[in-house]
Every structure is written in structure tokens, then in C-alpha cells.
Fold this sequence. Notes:
Elements: H1 8-18, H2 22-38, H3 42-66, H4 74-80, H5 84-87, E1 91-95, H6 102-115, E2 120-124, H7 125-137, H8 141-150, E3 153-159, H9 166-178, E4 184-189, H10 197-200, H11 203-213, E5 217-221, H12 227-234
Parallel strand pairs: 1-4, 1-5, 2-3, 3-4
Amino acid sequence: MSQATHPPQVLLNHHLKALRLPVFLREYAKVSAQCAADKADYSGFLLRLSELELLERERKGAERRFLAAPGVNKKQVLEWSRCEWIDKRDNLIFLGNPGAGKTHLAVALGLCACQRGYNVRFLTAAALVNALVEARDEKALLRLQARLAKIQLLIVDELGYVPFAKTGAELLFEAFSQRYERGSVLVTSNLPFEEWTAVFGSERLTGALLDRLTHRAHIAPIEGQSYRLAQRRRRPPSKGDKQPESTTQPIIETHLVTPPLGAG
């Protein structure tokens, strides 16, 4: 077929649809005009289009991931993904049952912050306490505290799964206190605030911690059933699977633990 039958614009539209580049298709005329006005070359034109396409895919990907936690206010989470709360040195606290999506959301927001150039560190509460105790024993606590103070977003996952000894609880309290109004903390916990005393072992310490941690915080209850449990129930049993004798059997969950902070 001749080019007259299928002019270049029609063929271009067809190819972009076939390649599944909807932003290219929607924006190329406007970006082309902008590049012509700016006297940008071909590579600059492609760069602008590809950036728009990538941003759109990231936005849609984030929306799809947030659907996995139906109890979350998606509009609010997307607002947090812009990281303005980090600039304000606010905190985020996710509370909810195991498997409801707290860690998933914390990791997603941490990645958003990394992509925007923020300094981010992810640790479980147990790993952070272990790092602080080891640093104290090795007379390196001040150096570790200085590194923690430089982190713009500190994510502390799974607070409440393991109770802390007196020394660990006090060191964690001090780490949170040093960040008060100086840097943001994102905490996930399976316990409501009134049960945090069981983790820190002291009502006085717990009260002082919550006073600082929640002063400038966005507190989000993460509701819904366990995502892992739902997946397990949907999965058809294989021939080699042993059928449980009772529906009340516990499900063993594993959690990712990052290396001790002192090792970095």
C-alpha cells in the first residue's frame, strides 16, 4: 500500500498502539511542538516522551499495588507518595493485623522517596534494636546515632512482634527521640498504641515515646484480612500437599530482616 493511502501519522498511531505506548500516542504532537519551539534535537524529543511514559506507568503501577490493601485510603497513600510529609519532617504510623499490607505500603513509600532523591533506610524494629545494642557494646553508639540522624526517612517495620529488654527499649526510645522534628519515621505495628507498653516494658517510657512519635504523625489503620492467607486459600492444592486436619492450624509467616545497620 502506498504512503498516500496510509499517511505517516496514521501509521505512527497504529505502531504506537501496537507497541502499547499510550502516552507516546497521546502526547507526541504536543511534545513535538514544544521541542521545536525549544530547538531540542531528536534525542531530547524522545527523552521527554519516554519520561512521560515512564511516569504514567509508575503511577498506574502504584495504583494497582495499593488495590492489594482495600482497607487503605488510596487517595491518601498517593498523596504520601509525593513525599511532602518528609519535607515537613512528619511521621507515618501504620497499624493493623499481620498480613494486611503494612510492610508492602512502607516499602512502596520508601521506594517513592528514593526515586525522589531522599536518603532512606529500612529496618525491622528488632534489627534496629540489635544494631543499637551491638554499637553500644562496641563503644560505637555515638557514630551509629550520627548516621541515623542523617537519614531523612527511617522506616521501622514490625514494631510489636518482639518485646524488648530494658536496654533495647531505652536505646530505641532514644533513637526515636533524636529524630523528633529533625527527620521522618515510618513505623508499622501489629499492636494498637495501648498495647505498646508490652513491647517497651514501661508505661512511662511508652508514654514519652508516643508523645513524640505521634505529635506530628499521620496515623493510618490498615484494615482487612491477611493478604498471604487470602492467597493461600485461593491456591488449589497440589497432589503432594498434605491436607490440614483442622482449619484452625496456624500459618507460618516469614519476614525479611535487613542486615544490621552497623554493617553498612
